[in-house]
Amino acid sequence: MIAPNLAILARGVCKEFGSGPQRTPVLQGAGLGIARGEVVFLVGPSGSGKTTLLSILGCILTPDGGSVQVLNQEVAQLRPAELAAFRQRHLGYVFQTFNLFPTLSALDNVALAATMRGVALPTARAQAERLLEQVGLSRQGRLRPGQLSTGGCQRVAVARGLVNDPAILFADEPTASLDAANGQAVMELLTRLVKAHGVTLVVVTHDSRILSFANRILHLEHGRLIRATQPGEAAQRATLESVA
Amino acid sequence: MWILAIKAMLADRAKLATSLFGVAFAVVLVNLQGGLLLGLIEKASLLVDYGQADIWVGRRYTNNVDVGSWIPERWIQRIRKVDGVERAEPYLVSYSEARLANGSFEPVIVVGSEPASLLGNAWSMAQGDARAVRHPDGILVDSCDAEKLGHCRVGDTLEINGRRAKVVGLTDGIVGFSTNPYVFTTLERARRQYVTGLTPEYCSFFLVKARPGTNPRALAARIQREVPHLDVYDRQTYSRMCMEYWLTRTGIGMSFGLATFLGLLVGLAVVGQTLYASVTERVKEFATLKALGAADQCVGQFVLAQALGNAGLGSALGLAISLAIGWLVNSPRAPINWTWWIGALSVLLTTGVCLLAAWLPYVRIRRLDPATVLRG
């Protein structure tokens, strides 16, 4: 049992990829706790295990060892189908490359995520329209991803991530494909929406320009969480590193 | 979910066009080849199917109506007394030869029926009246065969078996499986004038009309007991036998069947390949659905909807093209008998292939790790 205000509690999480001599440990006993409503960024160099940890916390990947509790649920106890249902009910995702259906309109991309839960299409569309309005795309709902800017696509992905009213939203490098201005705009939007919807936000990022949006920043190296910092601290450190 | 799957399918115009082309091609092929085979082979039993007789009685092993053998006409009395027989008439079908004005000749099949009842006479006329065969030297030939018979017209005179024959009417689409024209006339005239080497009191078949309410199969069995040395068949059975004769002895069934099968394989391969590629190209989209929490069943519905959408649209297009081509090229010489069951078979086959083509990549999608979407 975890504290009721904790959205995520992970202890000693291990994950390896490959087999035999090619076996590579990616996570080596990572542990963390994330409170409900918190905005947490996972940062670290390439290969430090950020995305793998996000996948495990997001119940997309199962750990080889350790314990992960998400919303009081020990995820290792869930079978794949139950895990999928859990993701659908409680979790939302924003992917680095958006992963939108290129042949569906922005509106239908968002509505599709809702119909997967069994919501009737007209209701799903109404929900999608409301969310597209919130992300500033009320007039572009009929456009397909190919007809939208990258910033527009990311906004659609945000709307899709929130359409099922998730308790936790996971975002993997949400600003990696965007320029500075768009990156800031998307992060402002994301943090505003997660606060408005009471959603916990977990972000993996390399982008030091957006660290100010976090409540807390968790630093990973070699598959371990090495420290937690506040945004100001991290920004200062990033500046010092770039000067050095 | 179903609607969105179909919308996603329709929006990808290039892939949609390729897969619809494949499905429609396969459907057209089955319908045209099948319809053509059926239309051609049904010509083998035209006289039986449309001759108005309920039961056909002929010499043993007479399994082709166009190649009759001789039976004594007096045996008909034994048939007429069988309970359930309303009428039994002698009928003659025999090869002969028409000599044309330019000196050439054309083998013909002379069909002679009783002038009183005209049972077995021509049933569809392009010009004139079928009863005109009762006129002196009167014969009916088909309008499609007129060219073979020196472009003859109503009122023209031909020479059949060295005897005068006057064209008193043109039939409409009564063209047999063999290339020889049918020449309809009366039994006596056929026997005495137009067929060589036939003893006057012989004929080829006895045509039987059953009393209303009589079961033809049961009546055929009763007649068979009276004339055990002859073959007795109800219309349906004899019709099927005549078709089987040409199907099995000429190899037309095999050649058409093989051509249809090979063409179908090509069409279905196009369908299968296109759909398979279209699903595998979208693996990342399906992985995204799985990452978002879609159950395998949900992803399966998405794939299934698109496969059925392709099959349905392609089949509708294929059936429409088949109808249009059939309407354009159908003729008595090469009839396309487009039946509902050939249409249904073509749709079933292509739908089955579409489902299979979608199911194979779906197996891969089921095993797909949703984490792949986060690995870039």
Descriptive report:
The complex is a heterodimer of chains A (244) and B (376). Chain A is an alpha/beta fold and 244 residues long. In chain A, 36% of the residues lie in helices and 26% in strands. Chain A is built from seven helices and ten strands. In chain A, strands 6-7-8-3-9-10 form a six-stranded mixed sheet, with helices on both faces. In chain A, helix 3 crosses helix 4, helix 4 crosses helix 5 and helix 5 packs parallel to helix 6. Chain A starts with 5 loop residues before the first strand and ends with a helix. The C terminus of chain A is likely disordered. Chain B is of the alpha+beta class. Chain B folds into two domains: 166 residues, no CATH class; 168 residues, no CATH class. Chain B has a six-stranded mixed barrel. In chain B, strands 2-10 form a two-stranded antiparallel sheet. In chain B, helix 8 runs parallel beside helix 11. The longest helix of chain B has 34 residues. The chains are: A alpha/beta (244), B alpha+beta (376). Chains A and B meet through helix 1, helix 2 and helix 3 of A and helix 1 and helix 9 of B.
Low-confidence stretches of chain B: none
**Which structural class matches the secondary elements of chain B?**
alpha+beta
Mean pLDDT of chain B: 89
Strand neighbour order, sheet with most strands of chain B? 3-4-9-6-8-7
Main β-sheet of chain A, in a few words? 6 strands, mixed
Q: Short description, anyone?
A:
The complex is a heterodimer of chains A (244) and B (376). Chain A is built from seven helices and ten strands. With 244 residues, chain A is of the alpha/beta class.
Topology at a glance:
The complex is a heterodimer of chains A (244) and B (376).
Chain A lengths: L5 E12 L6 E12 L3 E5 L6 H8 L7 E6 L2 E2 L5 H11 E4 L11 H10 L5 H14 L15 H13 L5 E5 L7 H18 L2 E5 L11 E6 L2 E6 L1 H13 L1
Parallel strand pairs in A: 3-8, 3-9, 6-7, 7-8
Antiparallel strand pairs in A: 1-2, 1-4, 4-5, 9-10
Helix pairs in contact in A: 3-4, 3-5, 4-5, 5-6
Chain B lengths: L1 H10 L1 H30 L3 H5 L4 E5 L11 E2 L3 H5 L4 E15 L5 E9 L11 E4 L9 E5 L14 E4 L2 E9 L10 E5 H8 L7 E2 L1 E6 L5 H11 L3 E5 H16 L1 H29 L2 H9 L4 H34 L10 H28 L9
Parallel strand pairs in B: 4-9, 6-8
Antiparallel strand pairs in B: 1-11, 1-12, 2-10, 3-4, 3-7, 3-11, 5-8, 6-9, 7-8
